[in-house]
Structure to design on (1160 residues):
């Protein structure tokens, strides 16, 4: 076992023999697995790209040569080799690095990346800049097979191949996306693997790339030879690596989907810790399975993240052809859904808040202008969503609500969530998005079966002087504040707006009678959000309005409670605001 | 010459002989050209796809068989054959049809389409729906070569080829986008044309499509034979047509870019009417040419619309490699620009307001999170932009301004426009978007060379009681209103906010001293826009706020003046509001 502490930079790899590099790789894997087993993280992708990363840094001269990782969830080993080994050796420093490339951490990282299919375009931009400056350097994009199905990757490949200079695309083909791949291009990748890269039909060659196939993508010797062959090339070239996702850890090799992103696990058995509590993924998948069974025209769509939707392999099997995975291609998911809805089906696209923004134009043009009754189920919206800067869940309200035609619903608890989702599927008058609550909550309130009277709010408690209009998950907080205030002798009004995409003007007008202040609460960015609509509505009246929500900024790996406080979304802060 | 009045539906084509169909095509061309010469419109695309449209409707059985046109700017002949011939024969009815497919007009139109690269996905959805319902019908997507470079089209092709059923993609390859094509896939299309479709490298085959090449894509006999061959196929198939853009009108065949979308023209000579007045396209292109000459690291990027940017073929030649056309691939344009900016270049992406929404995620993830100083130049923003429902220019403020990090500037006249664009390129601290004013205006006011003190407004006239904060083009209207009011003895304050992405809170606070009402004006949708930020800021103060702007809705081919009035964006309505 090599003492990895001595690996301060890629320079420390130079001059090593193959066997020394192999020993290094083994040590890296041991250390990496130890961290992952305790800390969790993207396990399969990093184990699978470990040797390739070593080979890249052995052959190329980072940061003069520039490596751009797609999604960059596979960049852990890159971090280990570029001055950040402590964050993988020392448990007290595990959280000193992010899970993605980060220019703030190292000159070897060029972009903060977290979404799919962007690396070829970004690296292409670096290549164009290099050429405009008359410099020379290798520009390398590392992109997984799963990422190649996204439109941005195709656009990047299409432009990249027109470069008359060095541009190296390393395709890390582990025959997997997050789950299994979907899309016809994967048949071509399979064909290339099965023919040792020699098949006449070659996707990359039709786009004009030189092409090099590496059948043993976890073999250091093969990798080094391949990278040395393309180093300093004066042409765009694809190096197609056949890699093993989860390489070197049997449970991850066997269960590639589960170990794509792993919770802490047992290093001996691979047994993964996890919660047995019911989540919204369970509620969604069980509800949809029942609906699909009852109506053969109902379908669930995912863009490469079936697990987020609660659709385990078993549930996918149950759903059969009514479950459609288009690969990580959100534009296709939305546009396909529009066509399906037009054709009489009831498609429900389950998607992460941060990823729906990849399909704004499709939400507007393909769906809303056409009025096709597509249903969106938005996961991880709000402060309780994902905390990486590239996966923030607080832009979806401004994104969806301001497109004419979309009805955006904010259920406050699981019962309301189910009733809204149920209505969204049954009706065919509107495109409807449902924002999954940020926290699990249950309520004995009664919920309507019909939400077709748009923008009609629910008055949860009736009071005077102050009304709090609290969207989605915020309602619980508003109720807590109301309880506290009641104990102090103040009865405020609490409203569940239900709809994020429009105002209940009748209610807003009636509040003027005996209220002086309206507080809005939403766990999303204030700019472009729900509260501002309320503020505008009351703008020329005597009603005072105070909007509580997230400041317009990018935060990385934030603390949920701190952001709740900073956003004024705690019961204490609402009470204080009212008592001020 | 056939009397086209008798063509009421595709049924009227059935049973006709080839020579009768050829005669029909000639008549259609004559009538179409006559309308186009008077009315203007998409000339080259419709002339080039004329025979193919006749053949499609002869062979297939619309609307049971469903034809979905990409962009649908080439659907004029389709409209002529599906009950809408009057709109092409009778000059008084020329405007009774839109320039795109429109389900409101005919059961033969399935979607309202206007953006590029969507048809394969939408048609794919119809195909999935057909299969889920257990029906049979031909589903046909018509897509131009220029549209194939867009990521959504690739995603659609990738999913479409996985269908185990009928799915027909007609590729209308006229070897042109709006201007010339850019992207390596066009080398493959050229290779296929040059080898009569027989080249070993075949983009469509690598994606799993059956493939049929039609060398004479304007020859009815060939087209009918090809469509009959694929009709009722049980597999996804690409029919690759080699067509002539502008077919049958010599000036349009010779000058394909100019006649892509033509203003009215002389039927004999092809001479096109046009304005000699300086436009923002001229200002932008001349300014950028000078900047590019002075600094070899400045670059202009277009996503397939060089003409919009004022970059005529001659100016593109002048700019050389500093002018980059990525094809109609806005995601690539933005991500590439981010990479270029990171690499030390100064990329300026000139783009139509309605098309920048195709790259929301790239603006957020690839640019803003990374803080790379990309410059956007937004054309056709506002009510004075394009009036088709698919090309509305009033969503860009909500889209761009609410992304953290983006500085969105709204110049009010050409001098301010140039000073802001100049600063945007010189600075490297922020991604900056500049919204081209909606109308040509000139001002003798002085403009700073530096806009780095973010959100600092310009107080144009100092008054009391009422302040109008008027963004961009609206400033002129506010000044007119102020003049009228001055004559009535009222001195109002008029503010040019300059920035759409943030507030000048110091100024807003100072207005509280001697103002009771703030009116905001923006020629964009109110929801998520600039005015709402002002309303929120003043929400808990005594200041009254009234926001003027466009209602959140989709309008088609609207009357500019009417929308100005409805939005409260006229001098009269501002005066009336203040006097009320």
């Amino acid at each position: 076992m090599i003492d990895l502490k001595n690996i301060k930079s890629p320079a420390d790899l130079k001059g090593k023999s193959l066997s020394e590099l192999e020993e290094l790789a083994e040590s890296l894997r041991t250390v990496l697995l130890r961290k992952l087993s305790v800390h969790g993280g993207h396990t399969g992708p990093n184990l699978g790209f470990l040797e390739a990363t070593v080979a890249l840094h052995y052959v190329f001269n980072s940061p003069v040569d520039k490596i751009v990782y797609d999604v960059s969830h596979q960049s852990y080993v890159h971090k280990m080799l570029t001055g950040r080994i402590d964050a993988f050796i020392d448990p007290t420093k595990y959280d000193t690095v992010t899970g993605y490339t980060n220019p703030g951490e190292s000159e070897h990282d060029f972009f903060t990346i977290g979404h799919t299919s962007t690396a070829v375009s970004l690296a292409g931009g670096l290549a164009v800049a290099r050429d405009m400056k008359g410099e020379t350097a290798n520009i390398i994009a590392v992109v997984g097979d799963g990422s190649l199905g996204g439109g941005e990757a195709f656009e990047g490949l299409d432009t990249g191949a027109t470069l008359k200079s060095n541009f190296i695309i390393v395709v890390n083909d582990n025959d997997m996306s997050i789950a299994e791949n979907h899309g016809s291009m994967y048949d071509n990748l399979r064909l290339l693997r099965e023919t040792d890269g020699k098949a006449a039909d070659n996707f990359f060659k039709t786009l004009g790339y030189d092409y090099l196939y590496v059948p043993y993508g976890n073999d250091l010797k093969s990798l080094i030879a391949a990278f040395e062959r393309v180093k300093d090339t004066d042409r765009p070239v694809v190096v197609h690596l056949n890699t093993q996702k989860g390489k070197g850890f049997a449970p991850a090799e066997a269960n590639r989907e589960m170990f794509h992103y792993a919770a802490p696990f047992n290093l001996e058995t691979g047994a993964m810790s996890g919660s047995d509590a019911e989540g919204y993924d369970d509620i969604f998948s069980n509800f949809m399975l029942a609906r699909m069974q009852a109506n053969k025209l109902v379908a669930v769509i995912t863009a490469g993240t079936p697990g987020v939707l609660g659709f385990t392999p078993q549930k996918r099997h149950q759903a059969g052809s009514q479950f459609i995975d288009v690969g990580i291609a959100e534009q296709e998911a939305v546009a396909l859904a529009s066509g399906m809805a037009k054709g009489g089906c009831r498609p429900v696209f389950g998607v992460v808040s941060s990823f729906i923004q990849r399909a704004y134009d499709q939400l507007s043009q393909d769906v809303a202008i056409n009025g096709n009754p597509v249903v969106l189920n938005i996961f991880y919206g709000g402060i309780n969503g994902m905390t990486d800067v590239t996966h923030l869940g607080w832009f979806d309200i401004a994104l969806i609500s301001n497109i004419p035609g979309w009805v955006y619903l904010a259920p406050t608890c699981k019962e309301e969530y189910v009733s809204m989702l149920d209505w969204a599927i049954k009706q065919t008058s509107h495109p409807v998005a449902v924002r999954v609550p940020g926290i699990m909550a249950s309520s004995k309130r009664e919920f309507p079966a019909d939400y077709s009277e748009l923008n009609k709010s629910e008055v949860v408690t009736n009071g005077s002087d102050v009304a709090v209009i609290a969207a989605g998950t915020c309602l619980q907080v508003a109720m807590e504040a109301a309880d506290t205030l009641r104990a102090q002798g103040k009865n405020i009004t609490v409203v569940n707006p239900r709809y994020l995409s429009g105002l209940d003007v009748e209610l807003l007008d009636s509040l003027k009678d005996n209220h002086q202040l309206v507080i809005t609460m939403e766990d999303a960015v204030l700019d472009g959000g729900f509260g501002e609509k309320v503020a505008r509505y009351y703008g020329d009246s005597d009603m005072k309005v105070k909007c509580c929500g997230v400041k317009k900024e990018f935060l990385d790996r934030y603390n949920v409670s701190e952001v709740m406080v900073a956003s004024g979304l705690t019961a204490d802060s609402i009470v204080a605001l009212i008592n001020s």
Summary: Chain A has a mean pLDDT of 97.
